[in-house]
């Protein structure tokens, strides 16, 4: 069926498209080279109401439903805008909204909508990736404070963020899932350091960082939610995170397909467009079919998610299949471009680099398949 977009959605999409084309896209290549998105770009997004659109107006949002966030994700993919808005708006801030008390919400949420407060979530460690129960970073209660020690790695937006949600071990229960808690840590807190901006294959402007916590003391009021419930909070929020990943991957596959089609119709070899050769035309037909399947599946899941339905199994399917599909499209589109596909001046080169990580973050393909297998009773 697909998602029932309305005229209001179309107008919102066009407005955001025009904003990106005017304020962001012309500068994106330079920001990628500099490995830095200026804070002013975030503020412009905030001024136009494009950050955390779903938050109530009382906190600076517009009270919009999830499909508007999906439109933002799609349009950024279409214009190759590599700013981790989706991470801030759809992954990190929802933790604060769902788990924060009134004081925490009033203190931080308004700034998240203006671009004055950027956020990141700190899960992965040098020795811990998909196995969250094995987190080694600790938070020890000391009077009216917690003292945090440990390190985190691969933290998207970590170099630029002002507020961090930190996953830390607070107990020694035989059930490791009861030992994790979430804490709010502000940039500038003594003992907290952004130790390294990481050089990556792609997504160069996302400010991915390594972080260190050495006797970082935060007040007990910085506990987010209840102590010992961190693992369960993470599991509850991952449904939307994985849906966001699937939406982004599918949109990227769409634009890469369009670029491949355009190139195949224009580029000539042996006196005819390369798209007219049967092998290439069949590959493009296969690519178009995969993109359509992914888009239809994802839009149906968006509707289920907005209606509050439980989609753990299906969203795990969508996350692994759509991200793997986007990687297949990237590889085939780059091959079709020949030597030009290897040149960074061509979008497909950068897209090929950027899409590779999507089968890894928000849960690897293998973890997604494990979840599905468990849901099937295996």
Descriptive report:
There is one protein chain. The protein has 378 residues and is of the alpha+beta class. The chain folds into 3 domains: 7-117, Orthogonal Bundle (Butyryl-Coa Dehydrogenase, subunit A, domain 1), CATH 1.10.540; 120-228, Butyryl-CoA Dehydrogenase, subunit A, domain 2 (Beta Barrel), CATH 2.40.110.10; 232-375, Butyryl-CoA Dehydrogenase, subunit A, domain 3 (Up-down Bundle). The chain is 50% helix and 15% strand. It contains 10 helices and 10 strands. It has helices at residues 7-34, 39-47, 66-78, 85-99, 102-114, 230-266, 278-306, 312-337, 347-355, 365-375; strands at residues 119-122, 138-142, 145-155, 163-169, 180-186, 192-197, 209-219, 223-224, 268-269, 272-273. The strands form 3 sheets. Strands 1-4-5-8 form a 4-stranded mixed beta sheet, with helices on one face. A hairpin with a 2-residue loop joins β9 and β10 (272-273). α4 (85-99) runs antiparallel to α5 (102-114) and α7 (278-306) packs antiparallel against α8 (312-337). The longest helix has 37 residues, at 230-266. The chain is globular, with a radius of gyration of 21 Å.
The CATH H-level homologous superfamily of the largest domain: Butyryl-CoA Dehydrogenase, subunit A, domain 3
Tally of contiguous helical segments: 10
Quaternary structure state of the chains depicted: single chain
User: Mind summarizing the main beta sheet?
Assistant: 4 strands, mixed
Percent helix: 40-55%
Q: Which strand order does the major sheet show?
A: 1-4-5-8
From the alpha carbons, calculate the radius of gyration and give it in angstroms: 21 Å
Give the SSE string: HHHHHEEEEEEEEHEEHHHH
- Strand tally is 10
